[in-house]
Amino acid sequence: MTAETIPTPVAAPNTGPPHPLAEFWLYFRANAGAVVGLFVIVGLVVVALLADVISPHSPIITNNTVFLKPPFWQAGGTLAYPLGTDAIGRDILSRLIHGARLSLLIGIAVVVLAVFAGTVLGLVAGFFRGMIEIVIMRLMDITLTLPSLLLAIVIVAILGPGLMNAMLAVSVVLLPHYVRIARAAVISEVAKDYVTAARVIGAGRMRLMFKEVLPNCVAPLIVQATLGISTAILDAAALGFLGLGAQPPTPEWGTMLADAREFVVRAWWVVTLPGVAILVTVLAFNLFGDGLRDALDPKLKR
Amino acid sequence: MVRFIFTRLSLVVPTFIGITLIVFVLVRLIPGDPIETMAGERGIDPARLAQLRHEYGFDQPVFVQYLYYLGRLFQGDLGRSIVTHEAVITEFKALFPATVELAVCSIIFALCLGLPAGIIAAVRRNSIFDHGVMGASLTGYSMPIFWWGLLLILLFSVQLGFTPVSGRISVMFYVESVTGFLLVDTLLVGDYDAFRSALAHLILPTIVLGTRPLAVIARMTRSSMLEVLGEDYIRTARAKGLPAYRVIAVHALRNALIPVVTVIGLQVGVLFTGAILTETIFSWPGVGKWLIEGINRRDYPVLQGGTLIIGAIIMIINLLVDVTYGLINPRIRYQR
Questions:
Q1: Which pLDDT score is estimated for B186?
Q2: Does B139 share its domain with B287?
């Protein structure tokens, strides 16, 4: 009762507030799910980077002696193809590993594009107000009104099916979220004293926008971006599944599932494993994003 | 209140025109001439091509085409499918009940499981049940539903043989369409075997489409309940000596449901996105599958009309949610 409450004199003086990163880690660490998510993401990144080294076979080359081999623990499976092969004799494990590379690339590229364009549009809308703001925000409202996948499908139909176009389509669909966040943050920041001070000193519009206001709007954008990666991976896989995303033989998880549909009855592993990969990846990003939001949200602290 | 509804309505009109413009422009940007596509690989006589292009108005400048389009739109004409030559609105009307039936069942499924799960999770905060519900709902939220559907087919249709793989009803039955909802129509006729068949076909698609709303509703109910349970009037109710179930069911739940209602309204767009995938997996003869087929056949009017109707429906539902919310919560009504 007494010993614990006495502050230890060594730790108290001249430490000052903890470094922002250390403080962030302190809050983030408390969320077990978020930490698990982070580990899975790190693992996926490692797998993606080493894809060429660790995958036992080529993800694309077919081998006509091993059609639809089951995983090694089932009768008929061999350790040479640990997770079995698909209908034209490609190693599932190697395809999944290369798929991780693709999915991470899709998630990050899509979100970078959406965040970049969204932040610029949001900053412009929040700064200039008036007609520009109305046009931008109306456009974003309309984009939000249409079901996300439908809009993405229409865009892919225009540009033609393919991985690049699917990524572009998903970026457009995600865009409104970032525009809204950036605009809301700008409007609340612009009224603050430091912006007025910068303006009085004579800072130009560009400087005010990007140097003064933007750094103070970053936290919500980061959180939304992390959660956006999971949406991007999921939507791109859905497009792949509908035959509008990555085209065969690209080892994209959604496309793999589209190819596997007709083998539901004969080969469960062809249908199950790519889906598990999508689910685990998306779940990891969602867990991580939730933890990030809690750790960065000042309202939830203490 | 009238003014509130009027402001909301005045926002709807420009949004709607905006949707028509965007849909029109997007669809016109699709490469490939629809008439040449229709002709297929056999090709088409240039004179006939020109005649058909003229007939369909494809030889006019794009903005003239848009104005014509808008003009026809206000007369309720959404064009005709290039493939079937049926009016888009007729095709839509024929297929829409199937999608609505599926969506309504999914929302009911999501509510029946999501509300109690969220409430119990909030009341027993940090219990194993709470952690289980939160884990399951995050998993449901992260689920690629097109894979989830395949998985359920694999398990329940292929392995166990419980449910049919695809379609809306067994081909053995013919049911006169009265409402378009097979569950209702079969009961109206009194054909219970057909009803059972329709129900069996509906189970897996309902679960697949309901998974995401279920996850969202469970999470939302839990967090909303937690917020309300911390309020002073709950403590007062408890202090008065009211039984726990009454405090939760009457005092807390009523207030906690307000944000949940909004979230359900906002699920309509999500449901439609899900319907496209679910209908594709289960060959469900609804609007989502129709649109995907429209894309594959380059059927401009179907794509244009379908997207527009869906956009309009979602807009109207959002408006209704807004107005309902204004009715329930005066604080919203008096903003602006």
A1: 83
A2: yes
The per-residue pLDDT for A178 is: 92
Mean of pLDDT over chain B: 84
B268: nearest CA partner in chain A: A147
Kindly state the percentage of chain A with pLDDT values over 70: 93
Query: Residues of B with CB below 8 A from A230's CB?
Result: 142
B272: tokens are 């439609």
Residues B128 and B213 occupy one common structural domain: yes
Interatomic CA distance for residues A192 and A215, integer angstroms: 14
Interface test with A, best of B142, B150, B160, B268 (most A CBs within 10 A): B142
Domain span including residue B29: 2-74
pLDDT digits (tens, 9 = 90+) for B141-164: 999 999 999 999 888 888 888 888
Mean pLDDT, residues A157-175 taken together: 90
DSSP secondary structure letter of residue A129: -
**Chain B CB within 8 Å of residue A149 CB:** yes
Do A279 and B139 count as a contact with CB atoms less than 8 A apart? yes
Which chain A residues touch B269 with a CB distance below 8 Å? 144-148
pLDDT of residue B39: 66
So what's the ipTM on this one? 0.84
In CATH terms, the fold of domain A103-296 is MetI-like fold (1.10.3720)
A32/B contact by beta carbon, under 8 A: no
Contact A161, A128 (CB under 8 A): no
Decide if B229 is inside a domain.
yes
Q: Do B247 and B285 fall into the same domain?
A: yes
> Is the Cβ–Cβ distance between B234 and B247 less than 8 Å?
yes
- Give just the sign of the alpha carbon dihedral A247, A248, A254, A257: positive
In whole angstroms, what is the distance from residue A26 CA to residue A291 CA? 11
